[in-house]
Design brief:
mainly beta; ten-stranded parallel sheet; five-stranded parallel sheet; 2 helices; 12% helix; elongated; disordered C terminus
Length: 168
């Protein structure tokens, strides 16, 4: 009798649904920009930003956990606004878990970093392309960094992982 009653109570409860992190679509070829979209992604840990088109600018991402990905079969180029600008195209700072699959990072003048992680816990880069950068990827004061299945050509330097004490 008790098991039947328990079964009826459980059947009457709404199903338990785990909320999924949001996915934000950004198409820089239609006037959207990473800078305008980043605040929404940074408010939602685990969110994904799907990027399409050529995004020009230096973005700074400061969040706990996010995935920046290129749209499958499309172009997702993150490019510096000025070839002489030494800042990283996207800078990831104070983040705990960031993935960047299927993106193309370019400086067109080899004067800056394609991607930089500062004081971040984990940065995973895969299926990406890096060209015409001074440094492909910089992991500075960061715990873990992974780069695999990525193309690197016409860059001055590869992956830098400076071993310094944390800037406390």
């Amino acid at each position: 009798m008790a098991s039947v009653l328990l079964g009826l109570i459980l059947a009457a409860l709404p199903p338990f649904v785990v909320p999924q992190p949001p996915v934000l679509e950004v198409n820089c070829d239609t006037g959207q920009s990473l800078e305008k979209a980043l605040p929404a992604v940074q408010k939602s840990p685990g969110a994904t930003m799907r990027i399409r088109g050529t995004c020009v600018g230096n973005s700074v991402l400061t969040t706990g956990s996010v995935r920046l990905e290129g749209v499958a079969g499309g172009v997702a180029l993150l490019q510096a606004p000025d070839p002489r600008d030494r800042r990283a195209v996207p800078m990831v700072k104070d983040a705990s878990d960031v993935e960047t699959p299927s993106l193309h990072f370019q400086h067109k003048g080899q004067s800056g970093a394609g991607l930089a992680f500062q004081q971040s816990h984990r940065g995973r880069i895969f299926d990406c392309e890096f060209d015409q950068n001074e440094v492909v990827v910089v992991y500075q004061w960061s715990d873990d960094g992974e780069v695999w299945r990525s193309s690197m050509h016409d860059n001055k330097c590869g992956v830098l992982c400076p071993r310094r004490s944390s800037p406390a």
